[in-house]
């Protein structure tokens, strides 16, 4: 930063900071950027923000500073508007101060002064917004991957029996993931029976039913059986009205009934141990009497 305009800004930096802090505080009061930030943290973040601005103006090598600041804002949950509003306020208060400190400004000097301030502020806006956007996109990408891993889990509950609980809507992309996880999991866990639980699927339309049928067919082709469980009355009615044929696919109204059927398919059954104990006691009593 050089020239008379630059010296005015540097010599009156404390005044600019105070004006900037007051205007940004007013914006927070009127609209608010976040309700989860304390007043102390808000003030300290404002001071750090304005220091970042001045550092960027006086020193062009501040890429890491801008990156660290943008990452901090994202972690604290600040919106992008805080950055853009703050820099616009800085531009305005800086120009106002220059006008007040420069006597007898000629008309032909006005545009160069405005351009000089823009040359200071616009690179900071561009770099901060880019850093903010890149960091945000990275976080969203990681969250998207995490959600994909959780969107179609295959859970082994017993030897040769696995369950895939589905929650939420099923679109084409998720259906593809369901198919991949289902086939990989069946082979990995050596599953003979797979229970697809659609209790948490709010709507079953033609597309969703088509994807589920495709998954069941794929499981059958690799030698396993797929049982569709969690069919609520309203979903059953929808399936009938849509003319979707599930006759070739085992269905149960609840996961409990489906699990019981899976045990029977794998040569097992649920036994009431209390009944067996009573029978054993009765047998012992009869032997004692003899």
What would a concise description of this structure say?
By secondary structure, the protein is of the alpha/beta class. Helices cover 69% and strands 9% of the residues.
Q: How would you describe this structure to a colleague?
A:
This protein is of the alpha/beta class and 290 residues long. Helices cover 69% and strands 9% of the residues. The model has no long low-confidence stretch (mean pLDDT 78). A five-stranded mixed sheet has the order 1-2-3-4-5, with helices on both faces. The chain is elongated, with a radius of gyration of 33 Å. Helix 7 (172-189) links the parallel strand 2 and strand 3 (193-200).
Characteristics:
alpha/beta; 290 residues; elongated; 5-stranded mixed sheet
| Distinct helical segment count | 11
The side-by-side strand order for the widest beta sheet comes to 1-2-3-4-5
Low-confidence parts, pLDDT < 50 over ≥5 residues? none
Q: Give the class from helix and strand content and strand pairing.
A: alpha/beta
How much of the sequence lies in strands comes to 5-15%
Mean pLDDT: 78
């Amino acid at each position: 930063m050089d020239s008379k305009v630059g010296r005015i800004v540097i010599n009156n930096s404390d005044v600019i900071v105070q004006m900037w802090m007051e205007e940004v505080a007013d914006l927070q009061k009127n609209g608010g950027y976040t309700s989860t930030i304390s007043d102390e943290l808000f003030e300290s973040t404002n001071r750090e923000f304005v220091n970042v601005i001045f550092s960027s103006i006086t020193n062009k090598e501040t890429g890491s500073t801008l990156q660290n600041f943008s990452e901090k804002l994202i972690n604290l949950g600040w919106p992008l508007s805080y950055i853009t509003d703050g820099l616009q306020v800085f531009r305005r208060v800086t120009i106002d101060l220059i006008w007040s400190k420069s006597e007898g400004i000629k008309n032909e000097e006005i545009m160069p002064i405005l351009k000089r301030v823009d040359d200071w502020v616009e690179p900071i806006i561009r770099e901060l917004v880019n850093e903010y956007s890149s960091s945000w996109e990275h976080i969203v990408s990681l969250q998207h991957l995490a959600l994909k891993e959780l969107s179609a889990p295959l859970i082994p509950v017993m030897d040769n029996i696995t369950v895939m609980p589905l929650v939420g809507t099923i679109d084409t992309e998720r259906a593809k993931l369901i198919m991949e996880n289902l086939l990989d999991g069946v082979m990995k866990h050596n599953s003979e029976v797979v229970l697809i639980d659609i209790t948490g699927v709010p709507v079953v339309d033609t597309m969703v039913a088509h994807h589920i049928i495709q998954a069941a067919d794929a499981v059958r082709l690799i030698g396993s059986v797929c049982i569709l469980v969690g069919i609520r009355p309203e979903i059953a009615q929808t399936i009938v009205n849509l003319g979707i044929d599930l006759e070739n696919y085992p269905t149960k109204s609840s996961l409990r009934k489906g699990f019981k059927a899976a045990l029977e398919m794998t040569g097992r059954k649920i036994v009431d141990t209390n009944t067996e104990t009573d029978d054993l006691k009765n047998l012992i009593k009869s032997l004692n009497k003899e």
